[in-house]
Design goal:
The chain is mostly helical and 159 residues long. It is 73% helix and 0% strand. It is built from 6 helices and no strands. The longest helix has 27 residues. It is elongated, with a radius of gyration of 21 Å.
């Protein structure tokens, strides 16, 4: 499936969910007096989806490819901070929730790795390189594929 907007990307949606979960966690009273810790984990969580969006909006596949790795770094930062929170006695009441929350950025990181692998093996160079001629050829190829599928369906129908 081809996506035309970053908001359609499943990995972006999952990254936004990580940020929502982190903001829910940091809204707890125990974070009130720990501004720098709260700020750092919130920024790292938001950075995941923002870098996916920024990369998607770039004009070439090569430029895009940089950003899933940056996002993966932010996933690692969020997980590292959650590991720290698990070990701090002041967060003992949230230990179970923090432990479960670590799974979300791990999942996003795996999706980002798969996306990066796909991009590295893609022959598509990116929007910046598309001309009217290449767009037309791509459209013709899609239409040809659809036509061949229809022919197969007709051929495989039983009388």
């Amino acid at each position: 499936m081809k996506y035309s907007r970053f908001e359609e990307l499943p990995v972006w949606k999952a990254a936004i969910e990580v940020a929502v979960q982190i903001y829910d966690l940091t809204s707890r009273p125990v974070f009130k007096s720990r501004y720098s810790l709260r700020d750092q984990i919130e920024r790292a969580a938001v950075s995941i989806s923002n870098n996916i969006a920024e990369g998607f909006e770039r004009g070439t596949t090569q430029e895009l490819l940089t950003f899933p790795y940056i996002s993966r770094g932010s996933c690692g930062e969020v997980r590292s901070m959650l590991c720290l929170l698990e070990r701090l006695p002041v967060f003992d009441d949230l230990k179970f929730e923090i432990s479960n929350l670590k799974l979300s950025p791990e999942g996003v990181s795996r999706q980002l790795r798969a996306w990066a692998d796909f991009l590295q093996n893609s022959e598509v160079r990116g929007q910046r390189y598309l001309t009217n001629k290449t767009k037309g050829k791509s459209k013709e190829a899609r239409e040809r594929e659809e036509f061949l599928k229809e022919l197969d369906q007709i051929k495989n129908r039983k009388p």
